[in-house]
């Protein structure tokens, strides 16, 4: 880890062993979007030689987790982010490295305002998974919540 404050990617890799196992690359982790890359690794291939569906799911879910951590880092002292549900659609054959790009479905300030009112907010993160040629190979929607600390 660098300096005294780890990056979002370093934090995820340190706390989520599956993300570390897949050797995910953290290309961008900001409150506006997170972009992660799954390198082409034969150990994580499926029966047709591309990335296994489980590896692609983990890539997309990890991208969603990165944007949630980046967007709500100022809320972590009073709430824990938790994935509530996820839905994924595999659109095209993925071969080689794939990249997941995650964005929030609404402003983080709106979610924080619900938390301020004593609510347990839910919000969606949309993720697109693409091949190197730009073709969309998968789309995932993850519903997250910020569970207030007791």
Largest sheet at a glance?
Answer: 6 strands, antiparallel
CATH homologous superfamily identity? Hotdog Thioesterase
- Structural class by secondary-structure content: alpha+beta
Distance between the termini: 30 Å
CATH class equals: Alpha Beta
Give the overall form. Answer: globular
**What average pLDDT do the residues reach?**
94
The ordered string of helix (H) and strand (E) elements is HHEEHEEHEE
Quaternary organisation: single chain
> What is the CATH topology classification name?
Thiol Ester Dehydrase, Chain A
Any idea what the radius of gyration is? 16 Å
Furnish the topology, listing elements before pairings.
Layout: H1 8-15, H2 17-21, E1 25-29, E2 34-38, H3 53-71, E3 79-90, E4 98-104, H4 108-116, E5 122-131, E6 136-148
Antiparallel strand pairs: 1-2, 2-4, 3-6, 4-5, 5-6
What report would you give on this structure?
This protein is of the alpha+beta class and 150 residues long. The protein has a single domain (8-148), classed as Hotdog Thioesterase (Thiol Ester Dehydrase, Chain A). The protein is built from 4 helices and 6 strands. The chain has helices at residues 8-15, 17-21, 53-71, 108-116; strands at residues 25-29, 34-38, 79-90, 98-104, 122-131, 136-148. Strands 1-2-4-5-6-3 form a 6-stranded antiparallel beta sheet. A hairpin with a 4-residue loop joins strand 1 (25-29) and strand 2 (34-38). The protein starts with 7 loop residues before the first helix and ends with a strand.
